[in-house]
Each structure stands twice: as C-alpha cells, then as structure tokens.
C-alpha cells in the first residue's frame, strides 16, 4: 500500500454526509476545541502494521492538544478487527479507538517528517519494526505533546548536550572537589548548647 497516496485520499475524502473532507473536519474540530494554530497545524498520518503497513487515520496536533480521525473500523482487515475486539475486552475505555489502541501497543506511529523520510528510503515495515522494538517513538507517548522529531537515543543525547553543555562546562570549571575531609568531633558542651 502506498501510504502517502492513501493518506492524501483519506484527507480529501468526504468525512460524512455533511460534504466536509476529513481535512476540513479535523480543522473544524480543532477550532471547536480551541486548539492553537488550528488553521495551519500539520496533519500527520497514523500508520499501523497488521501483516503489512496500513493507514489508520490522521492526527492533528498543536501544543498540548490533539485530535484524530480514523478510517472506518469495518474497512480494517478482519483479523485486525478481531485482535482489537480482544484488546478492548481488557480495556473497554479504548473501545472504538483503533489508532490509540494500536499506538499504545506499539503497533502504529504518528508519522512525523523524519518518519516519512525514513519510510521513503527504507519502507514502512522498517519504521514500524523500529517502533515495535522501542527504537523509534510512536509520537503518541505524551498524548497531546508536539510530534517529536527526534527518534533515537543519539539525537536525545545531542539535544541534552546542547541544552546543558554550558552548565556542565561551568560546573566542571568552578566546582572544587575536596577529598579526605575529616568530620569534626563535637564535644558534650557543644551538643548541649544545641539541645
């Protein structure tokens, strides 16, 4: 399945009988929920894996708020439908939340720009294998946080180094470590003054 074309088709398809496309529906919902920047917020594809990569829906996020639109449940492969129904027996609060269920079980990703680029080079199966192996973020972990563009530990270390590098350098230059300090002995007179 060509995820990019499927995503474009999904965004441009009519969401319901109101004549609104999925893209228009997401923006209208974002406006109603007072999501900052609803007019220009990026809409990301939600890509899952069940035997092969498949589009699960779209995710709009800005700041701390997010909303999603999902492909209809009855269009999913029957085996995936059965798996989801079993999952929902243990977590009824997730019933009918296909994308969230898949994201929480690390079987899907909200695909950021870096994820899309990586998928273009190596394929969606490679991206989703990294998600499954916890080597790539689902971009859902913070539910509502901005989509993370850093997908590996090396990027995280560089980011932390950039943020705290000056502080660590200053501490290393200005902190004096004292070794072998004898602890003072306090006599009875000193101790009785503090009681």
Description:
The protein is of the alpha+beta class and 195 residues long. It has one domain. The protein has helices at residues 3-12, 22-32, 78-90, 98-104, 113-122, 124-132, 153-174, 188-193; strands at 43-49, 53-62, 65-70, 108-110. Strands 3-2-1-4 form a four-stranded antiparallel beta sheet, sandwiched between helices. It starts with a helix and ends with a helix. The relative contact order is 0.10. Mean pLDDT is 79; it is low at 143-168.
Describe the SSE topology:
Layout lengths: L2 H10 L9 H11 L10 E7 L3 E10 L2 E6 L7 H13 L7 H7 L3 E3 L2 H10 L1 H9 L20 H22 L13 H6 L2
Antiparallel strand pairs: 1-2, 1-4, 2-3
Helix pairs in contact: 5-6
Portion of residues within helices: 40-55%
Tally of DSSP β-strands: 4
Shape: elongated
Strand order of the largest sheet: 3-2-1-4
Major β-sheet profile:
4 strands, antiparallel
The radius of gyration computed from the alpha-carbon positions, rounded to a whole number of angstroms, is 25 Å
How many separate domains?
1
How much is the average pLDDT? 79
Percentage of β-strand residues: 5-15%
Low-pLDDT sequence parts: 143-168
Helix and strand content put the structural class at alpha+beta
How far apart the termini lie comes to: 78 Å
* Tally of contiguous helical segments: 8
- Write the H/E string, N to C: HHEEEHHEHHHH
